[in-house]
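Lab meeting, item 3. Inverse folding demo.
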């Protein structure tokens, strides 16, 4: 009977049940998201804001069907040295940015 149901049923079955559950948890999307550690591989490493140094001011073209040049700045983050393109909001704000310390919450 125990051959057909494929579940272990006896007293010494704890290790088998535990290891089976550990393997099956990786099929759960929320478990995989929280345990893979991909959040730390991103430039901000889990935080919402980061401080960096402006390397240059750039314009990034918008994707289709829009046509615009988004004002951005190439920024090197202080915490890990990664370089990102940070969007500069509002009209004329790019004029106030020099090659110095720059805080931002959005990255592309």
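The presenter then showed the designed sequence:
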């Amino acid at each position: 009977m125990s051959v057909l149901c494929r579940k272990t049923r006896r007293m010494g079955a704890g290790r088998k049940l535990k290891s089976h559950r550990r393997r099956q948890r990786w099929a759960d999307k929320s478990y995989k998201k929280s345990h893979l550690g991909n959040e730390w591989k991103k430039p901000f490493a889990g935080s919402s804001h980061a401080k960096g140094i402006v390397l240059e001011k750039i314009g990034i073209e918008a994707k289709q069907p829009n046509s615009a040049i988004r004002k951005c700045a190439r920024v090197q983050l202080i915490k890990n040295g990664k370089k990102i393109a940070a969007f500069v909001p509002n009209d004329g704000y790019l004029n106030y940015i020099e090659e110095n310390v720059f805080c931002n919450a959005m990255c592309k």
